[in-house]
Amino acid sequence: MLKRFFPIFDWLSTYKKEYLPGDLFAGLTVGIMLIPQGMAYAMIAGLPPIFGLYASLIPQVIYAIMGTSRQLAVGPVAMDSLLVASGLGALSLSGIDEYVSMAIFLALFMGAIQLFLGVLRMGFLVNFLSKPVISGFTSAAAIIIALSQLKHILGIDIAGGNRIQIVFKNTFDNISDINWCTLCIGLVAIVLIKGIKKVKKTFPAALVVVVLGIVLMYFSGWSTIGVKIMGEIPQGLPKFQVPNIEFSRISELLPIAMTLALIAFMEAISVAKAVAEKHTDYELDSNQELIALGTSNIIGSLFQSYPTTGGFSRTAVNEQAGAKTGIAPIISAIIVGLTLLFLTPLFYYLPNAVLAAIIMVAVFGLIDVKYPMQLLKSRKDEFALLLITFLITLTVGIKEGIILGVLISLIVVIYRTSKPHMAVLGRIEGTNYFKNINRFNTNDKEREDVLIVRFDAQLFFGNKDYFKKRLQKHILRKGLSLRTIILNAEAINYIDSSATHMLMQLIDELKAKKIRLIIAGAIGPTRDIIFSSGMIDKIGLNNLFVRTYEAMDELDGKEEKTKIQEKISQQTKSAV
Amino acid sequence: MLKRFFPIFDWLSTYKKEYLPGDLFAGLTVGIMLIPQGMAYAMIAGLPPIFGLYASLIPQVIYAIMGTSRQLAVGPVAMDSLLVASGLGALSLSGIDEYVSMAIFLALFMGAIQLFLGVLRMGFLVNFLSKPVISGFTSAAAIIIALSQLKHILGIDIAGGNRIQIVFKNTFDNISDINWCTLCIGLVAIVLIKGIKKVKKTFPAALVVVVLGIVLMYFSGWSTIGVKIMGEIPQGLPKFQVPNIEFSRISELLPIAMTLALIAFMEAISVAKAVAEKHTDYELDSNQELIALGTSNIIGSLFQSYPTTGGFSRTAVNEQAGAKTGIAPIISAIIVGLTLLFLTPLFYYLPNAVLAAIIMVAVFGLIDVKYPMQLLKSRKDEFALLLITFLITLTVGIKEGIILGVLISLIVVIYRTSKPHMAVLGRIEGTNYFKNINRFNTNDKEREDVLIVRFDAQLFFGNKDYFKKRLQKHILRKGLSLRTIILNAEAINYIDSSATHMLMQLIDELKAKKIRLIIAGAIGPTRDIIFSSGMIDKIGLNNLFVRTYEAMDELDGKEEKTKIQEKISQQTKSAV
Fold it and tell me: Chain B, 44-63: which have a CB under 8 Å from a chain A CB?
């Protein structure tokens, strides 16, 4: 029990000495990465940079204790920060102090939702995010995040907005105010990071440009000609403080907190899964992940942390640098803690444009072109889904994009089950196979007195009318000589009450026309429903068969149903 | 083409003389019913009674020309009227004139939506309303409608509200103001209608109580002691008038118009279907129904009609009275027209309580107790769905009830496909049947080197992880001696791109463990996907089989795959 909720007891008791070098190196690398990234992401969220460091401290320690992934790096991430900014930007707040306390309360709120969902074992919810939706959404969000940094790179004021057309319009309206020094710093920083990454991937390129940027600003004095710098950053660890907001705000924050809780979880679980596939020494538990991430956010919020989750880039670095257990994030947290205690004055001269450059490089890596191209070739429908999610996220909004994407993919699934494949079967000459007559050029023509159909989906309220309509068309086509219908039910995996009702009615109608209905190949759960719903009294035990050819043989008087066939065709749960 | 969009040309050209008596009698009966009903429903909608008569005039004539049902009686109905009242009640309007013009505009708006959906062939949408949801919603709406008439029966003022708890509270707050004469009239009217209906079902009981009510009020003079009467009703046909409202109102009205369009369509199509089952001389086309109902509302709105649709009660009466074609509603419309021209002064003394009594009797007939009881016995899950829809409609709102009901039923369907049935199969001794080892006490134990599983649903983004997880558990259970996995794919009716990706990865992983994956019994559409997605290169042609036992026979070296088996197992659309 203890191990289930605190997996640390699991790996700490079996910790091996040879893990330590990897954990140490990974912890140091991620810790150093976190300092500029944390400040940069806080900027995306519209918060003072120090809050990015606060968010890099407590949550990852809690996750190290409770999480089931041993490489996931928890902390501030770009997507969450953007959601915070777009969510809080829409409210009317009195000033930066209220903004900060709302952001911290959001961490508590989303954490509580995640914990709640985890306890209720709702981790399966994340299954409803299909790959095309995630891909379209991530690419669009990356573009929006990059655009949100344009103002820092160009050194101009661009009014907020998360829609691409508005950002472009506002940018062009102010294009004449560009600060060329700022733009230079930004572009050089981008080129440098890209260059360093090309030479050696695990090198802390961000840290290099941060140091260079600080040195440049310190000596050049450009801050007097409009190049924006960080300015004073408070020293010391975050204080313990219960987040408090007006009670009336809770209903306003609920939709933002829900979106954050789900999207943050999705991001964390998908990267954790990708990494877990390379490691065989542990298994992910998506419900425990919800609990761990939720608790990280709740406890984090008590120490001034804004919403956090497991991020793509740092987790990848953590894994590549050799992290084996939760020791690595604890080391990272120590690095961040030391920085907060002693090093914040060093960042006084850090130009904003450098942080913006770090963000831009990071998120452009998230834009996926290969996968959409692949879909365009083989699955036009799923490509369309990706494109719609992408365009709505870009032009309408972040929340709208993900919600509509999920809704559309669910509707597609439902639509597919509402008009499923239905085939007329015929015997392939000289065999016991009954196959779709439209696919197989069977010489054996369809018999006039028998109609064999296979229905390839569950029978439920969404397709019962479709089933009946299609069946009636076939009956009409066959004309008056039709005596028997064999329904091959191998692919019918469920029958709900609406469909049961329809089937009973159908059997009565067929009986009036003196047509016999045979059900062949019903699987266990379907047999259970046929018996428990009382449908069996309408169908009759003698009309259940295991295989289509056995029904045909009996019809033709060739062979009787054997005892064993009878037993199998009538087996149900209650009968065992 | 003409006949498709104007089915009147279809039946008018083949009109038989023997249809006429039925059509005439039905038209007269429904016309006489319409007069009190129309006025009563207008009252539910919060409109002056005359608008109920206007709505009974043009729409049913248009439907007679364009509809595919030959018995559906179109006009004002209780549910739509309630939706109009609850939708417009939530807006801040300047007075009754604006209220009326908004209601008429709603008819235009919902008609346009229906026409649009019909042209796009979206009639299948109505399939998503499952029986439990419809039943729970209808019963709750009937109760809400009946409660909305309480104020007329009690003769007191009850502030609006569509939630049962608010109506009860407001009623008890004003209970001391009851007008006992009004209450008497109402109760007597209810008993009378019930009594007459018991004796003879098709007798226009409503008309009788209307006449009695008018006579009573004329001679008693009770209108001076607070019994409310209709008062002056304008004479003459509705004028042609294009509905106009402020453009800015459109976005406010959109959700109401959408709900109206869909619920009205649902009501009409379900009653039309029920009636069509008794008649073999025509077929319903749900898309043409959308077009016909939409056009009825659009043209109706140009002649001051508020939202209309095909109603339950009048359609039943129309059919029982012998209506065979659209001649019947044309007769009804003439009756209503004559009333508007000459008879409106007669209704001056009609007490409101009588109309309220007519409504109450009508809607209590819609409350369904039998069906929920039946579900409670055999399908607890669907009963819960019905109950939730019922309670939300009663206590939260009409719109919320239907929307949540539909959403929950879709989620249930998705949930079912996200964790489908998966069985481990074993050979039943001495046969070629492979069945669920947990259902059949096969003596033949599961073999150590072969794992046979059947997965009973489409493989898609929502269940691919579930599939993999379950399969891996079985693989782990089998241990190192496992050499072959046979996936019985008979019930897998689709594989989407996310699942394809998962399968390809899985095959690679299995190959690394030297485990062979065989797919047996894939149906046509699945074979198409296996080939077109390139999955076949990973699987290998030799690993496709038609039946599980054939794969086993080959594994055991008993029998080679025959030419015909090979051909069937590899058949795809492109290959034919």
Answer: none
